[in-house]
Design a protein that fits this description.
Layout lengths: L1 H15 L4 E2 L8 E2 L16 E5 L15 H10 L4 E3 L9 E3 L7 E2 L5 E5 L14 H10 L13 H4 L18 E5 L2 E5 L7 H4 L18 H4 L7 E7 L3 E6 L17 E5 L4 H10 L7 E3 L16 H4 L2 E3 L4 E7 L9 H10 L2 H8 L5 E3 L26 H10 L7 E7 L2 H15 L4 E7 L4 H5 L8 E7 L5 H9 L18 H11 L4 H18 L2 E7 L2 E3 L4 E2 L17 E2 L5
Parallel strand pairs: 3-12, 3-13, 17-18, 17-19
Antiparallel strand pairs: 1-2, 4-5, 6-7, 7-9, 8-9, 10-11, 11-12, 14-21, 15-19, 15-20, 16-20, 22-23
């Protein structure tokens, strides 16, 4: 396992920096990694249209509501926040100013954060962006109609959990102060050195209150603050973007805004996407596969030549794929049953279903490889990571289930996820657990499993963060007080007093080295309670057309190619 972690870490560094080899053939002079895949597909120029080929439409156009990697990637094209993540290769986890002049000014104990807005920042209609717009937008994120997106901010701005949003309580949160049009001050319930990372989340997208007609109006009529705005949208078919005439490039050091237009095409069969990207014909020379459509495992053998590898980018491993076990449903409330399942799962089979070693690294814990202070461990070892059937049966017998039981597993309607769920079926069948797959539409999957009333016994999901800390990687997934009726990220619904206490204690530690060490230990303590089965760190492969430049794996975009970075090498083609 240590070797695997070292390899993954090396891959992360290689995928974001220079070095490597130079591809020959059609991709000459493109820097590649040790296996020949592109580190960056080369320089881009202004102009033209970039096409994004995908099977899945966006979950929501409202940044308060979307929470999957693909839609968060898309949001950066049309929206801006107080801060964001650098677009420079090798610095994708570095927080930088966006609409604010800096990454925030804290008080001594980091409980008060002050941001000052830049000059000359506007919405698509020319309306100036004001500090009051951030307060309004953040407060509307607490409304139950939209509260299904990112929620890191909630325990810091509303520790009581009682605030129901600006529509029900127009007085708003006392924790957000706006002394003037240019200044916004956040009074946190506890210290947080990483608040600039929270200020980079999609819920910190500003909106003018007088142009938002109701809780869900933004989902129907987005108001752009980024370099692009929506031109047309036919749900399930196509979305096009054109330049926002009131975006000022001198205020944005992150988004190069190379293309004149983006065209997102939805509803394509994943194998068709692979075929089109490999064939590289016509307008597909100006295309990339969407974040949700990495190469299928069946296509790997077709891209081994340098001319294909030089336009194929490997995602960096900052996402953990895992199986959550709903602890509120029996028999998964029994620790012995959850531990038995951890022993029973054949991780090697799951890796094969994901595409093999080129597309996934097996993990035994929930922290991603580059998290500071992380200590690797394996509490449920087995020969060759293929599962310990005897130990699993022993625990099931102790729990009163010698013949296993029946359960349903929720899974996203994406080929690789279904293959993983089928691998789970085969693993658990060996110990008598019979799984039924509940396949959910990919665009609504996260919304469904984040609604506890709609959850089944198990679910395959993933969790990513460019903020390399236990705060985003452990707090929302395992804190019992963060279980909500909608937008719930604690999919296992574990509400363990000891875990809750430890999460509370660690969250207020101001020494980052000590905090990281404590989160690393808690990572182990959580796995002792076995609410999840960690599966892998995805290192998917994403293809770009031969005329697409500046495509590289971006940790700030959950490891994918960043939509804002790409452009055409020759816009006249």
């Amino acid at each position: 396992m240590v070797a695997a972690i070292v390899a993954a870490g090396s891959l992360l560094l290689a995928g974001c920096g220079g070095g490597g080899n130079s591809a020959s053939g059609a991709g000459a002079n493109v820097e590649t990694d040790a296996q020949g895949f592109a580190l960056n597909t080369g320089p881009a120029q202004k102009g033209g249209t970039v096409n994004i080929l995908g099977a899945v439409d966006f979950s929501h156009l409202d940044p308060e509501m979307g929470n999957d990697g693909n839609v968060l990637n898309f949001y950066r094209l049309i929206y801006r926040q107080l801060t964001t993540y650098s677009n420079e290769p090798g610095k994708g986890t570095t927080v930088v100013p966006d609409l604010a002049t800096d990454t925030g000014q804290p008080n001594a104990d980091k409980t008060v954060w002050t941001f000052t807005l830049k000059d000359n920042i506007f919405y698509q209609d020319g309306t100036p962006i004001k500090a009051q717009d951030f307060k309004f937008a953040i407060e509307r994120s607490f409304d139950s109609a939209v509260a299904i997106g990112q929620n890191y901010h909630r325990p810091y701005l509303d520790p009581s959990g009682q605030y129901q949003g600006v529509y029900k309580d127009p007085a708003g949160l006392k924790s957000i102060e706006v002394p003037d049009d240019k200044t916004i001050v956040f009074h946190l319930s506890k210290p947080l050195a990483g608040f600039p990372d929270i200020a980079a989340t999609a819920v910190f997208t500003p909106f003018p209150a007088d142009k938002v007609t109701g809780p869900t109006s933004i989902d129907q009529n987005p108001i752009a603050s980024g370099p692009y705005m929506i031109d047309s949208y036919t749900r399930g078919s196509q979305l096009t973007l054109s330049r926002n005439p009131n975006w000022k490039p001198e205020t944005d050091d992150v988004r190069p805004a190379y293309p004149d237009n983006y065209k997102f095409i939805f509803g394509l069969d994943p194998s068709t996407i692979d075929q089109r990207m490999i064939s590289d014909q016509g307008e597909d020379k100006n295309a990339i596969a969407s974040s949700t459509n990495p190469l299928l495992a069946a296509s790997l053998s077709r891209i081994q030549q340098p001319q294909f590898k030089s336009r194929t980018v490997r995602n960096v491993p900052n996402c953990t794929t895992y199986m959550a076990m709903n602890t509120t449903k029996q028999p998964l409330g029994d620790l012995r049953v959850r531990q038995a399942i951890n022993y029973a799962v054949d991780l090697k089979s799951n890796q094969a279903a994901t595409g093999g070693e080129q597309m996934a690294t097996i993990t035994h814990d929930m922290l991603t490889p580059e998290v500071p202070g992380r200590v690797p461990f394996n509490l449920y070892p087995s020969e060759g990571d293929q599962g310990d059937v005897a130990k699993a049966k022993e625990l099931l017998t102790e729990a009163g289930y010698p013949n296993g039981f029946e359960a349903t597993i929720d899974v996203r309607s994406i080929p690789v996820w279904k293959a993983q769920a089928e691998a789970m079926q085969q693993s658990l069948e060996r110990v008598g657990i019979k799984l039924t797959l509940n396949v959910i539409d990919a665009s609504t999957y996260y919304e469904v499993i984040a609604t506890p009333a709609k959850q089944h016994e198990m679910a395959i999901t993933g969790w990513c963060s460019p903020w390399l800390s236990g705060i985003p990687l452990l707090q929302p997934l395992f804190h019992g007080r963060q279980i909500t009726a909608t937008g719930n990220q604690n999919i296992s619904q574990i509400n363990d007093p000891e875990i809750n206490r430890r999460l509370d204690e660690i969250s207020v530690i101001t020494d980052l080295d000590q905090q990281n060490a404590e989160y690393a230990e808690l990572n182990r303590e959580i796995m002792e309670k076995a609410p999840v089965v960690p599966l892998d760190w995805a290192t998917n492969l994403q293809m770009a057309g031969s005329n697409v430049g500046n495509a590289f794996a971006h940790p700030g975009r959950t490891g994918y190619i960043d939509y804002t970075s790409v452009g055409l090498k020759d816009p006249t083609k």
